[in-house]
Amino acid sequence: MLRRRFMVIFTAVFSSMVALLLAIPCVRFLFAPLNRHHKPAEFQRVAPLTSLPEGTPTRITITADRQDAFTHYPKSAIGSVWLRRRHNAAGLDEVDVWQTICPHLGCGIERAADDGFTCRCHASDFDANGQCLSGPSPRGMDKLEVRLTSAEENEQVWVEVRYQQFELGTSLQRAKS
Ligand code: FES
């Protein structure tokens, strides 16, 4: 009788411990998205400077590792930018970078027949510097932070962009949190 009782208690305690051990990774998995902190975007290389024609905007796809609630997508396309290489007043290379997403409702911005840009969804036109000329867009094209860096290996100059998306349909340039 005593042995049977011991076996019942032992089985109950052992089963509880196993259930607890199995529950820990399950709970951690379920709450993982809550523990993920949004890091601010970092500069990333998007193109060698010499690959950009001078004065003519070039569209470049941005890729990055992406994560939704539970799935990791390595090196997938997350957006695109317009890059325009030009010389500043001192004759040095500079690059302008704009989002390709229209600030109105998010359609893609294309090159226009002249030097500017256009969004065909609701006919917003932008000049060559991204300023809004006409249409419902509440502001000009969103500019992104850019810097030029030299690669240590071969001193090639790279264009690096801090990619981000902006809120649509407002007159303020605010980054999406
Ligand atoms: S989305 Fe571009 S003008 Fe409306």
Written overview of the protein:
The chain has 177 residues and is an alpha+beta fold. It folds into two domains: 1-36; 43-162, Rieske [2Fe-2S] iron-sulphur domain (Rieske Iron-sulfur Protein), CATH 2.102.10. It has one helix and ten strands. It has one helix spanning 2-35, and strands spanning 43-48, 58-67, 72-87, 93-99, 110-111, 117-119, 124-126, 132-134, 145-150, 157-162. The protein has a four-stranded antiparallel sheet, with no helix packed on it. The longest helix is centred in the first third of the chain and has 34 residues, at 2-35. It is elongated. The model has no long low-confidence stretch (mean pLDDT 87). Residues 102, 104-107, 119, 121-122, 124, 135-137 line the site of FE2/S2 (inorganic) cluster (FES). FE2/S2 (inorganic) cluster is lined by residues 102, 104-107, 119, 121-122, 124, 135-137.
Concise account of the structure shown:
This protein has 177 residues and is an alpha+beta fold. It is 19% helix and 35% strand.
